[in-house]
Specification:
The complex is a heterodimer of chains A (91) and B (292). With 91 residues, chain A is mostly helical. In chain A, 71% of the residues lie in helices and 0% in strands. Chain A is flat and about 55 Å long. Chain B is mainly α. Chain B is built from twelve helices and no strands. The chains are: A mainly alpha (91), B mainly alpha (292). At the A-B interface, helix 1 and helix 3 of A face helix 1, helix 3, helix 4, helix 5 and helix 6 of B.
Amino acid sequence: MRKRALGWLGDAALVLYFVFALFPVAWMVILSLKPAGQLFSTYFSFSPTLDGYRTVLGDSEGIPFVRYFVNSLVVSVGAVVLSLVVGLPAA
Amino acid sequence: MRLALRPCFLIVPALLLTCGILYPFGLGLYYTLFDFSASKPRPDMVGFENYRAVFTQEAFWNSAWVTVLYAVGAALAETVLGVAVALLLYRSTLVGRVLEKILILPLMIAPVIAAIIWKLMLQPSVGVVNHLLRPFGLGGVQWTDTPTGALLSSIAVDVWVYTPFVAILALAGLRSLPTSPFEAAAVDGAGWWYTFRRLTLPMLWPYVLVAVIFRFMDSLKVFDIIYALTEGGPGDSTVVLQIRAYLEAIRFQRYSFGISYTIVLWAVVYLAAMVLVKHLGKIQRKAAEVTT
């Protein structure tokens, strides 16, 4: 009985940590779906909109998202390839 | 002939790597001997004047103190929390198995992004954290607007991002421990606390210490989280050495002086790493003794 209670307590502690770990991520997603006017309201109810994503992915605001993504890809793939080429024979 | 040449070819990339690391380092070291700045494009050799200036600057000692507080605080909190999470996950309860899958999520978010989202959340009047605390009568906490609060908030963001890193390493360590000592202890009727203190902890220490080394060195060199969260403010309260170096070299355009700061920081990190790695060897030997 005592062991069972301790087990529940452990699970509760885990859940507590994960609330701390995941809340900012969830809040980030919520913020991304909010219209600009409700950005600073801290209530969880809001009228969801995909405007943010449309602005980022669309071409209307002149944000070359694909270009940025390709830049990131080139840098990370380049770094991996280069460090493998240099690091593998060295090891 | 061909056999004799092969080791020479294999060593070329390593040699290039060493040169690639040492050349900029040596060049930086060389620059610190001049008084190169935006107002003086034709620098004169000044010897160790830059270092003397660093060590006599009051801002340096403030930055050094803040850096140590930040690194020790962050590494300590991450280790305690990370090991605790790993121990709880190791029990493999239903809740634990589900949560383990998403443990790595904060690590996948760039620290700058994490700092920005926390900055929004910690905003005193419109941030969600104060909104949630309001029912408990704590709605007016000035998270990043007081010196102590700003430092603690930056440490908290560091803890948020990197605790999963420590937890993953500790969990991998726990799962790779030999089972026979635990079976022997169970046969002998050893209690939970005794097993934990005499078996789990000593054998787990090497894994934890590797995580501590990584985290401590990384947080000594912190830049992104603090720059995005507080920009070193309020006042000088969160200006760590790396931020100080950035301010001197880029904002005040005293290039040589800024590089001197990074060299001093490098020396600090190097010394800390040496001490910790030496300690690691000792602890590994101790862990080996437990299993035999």
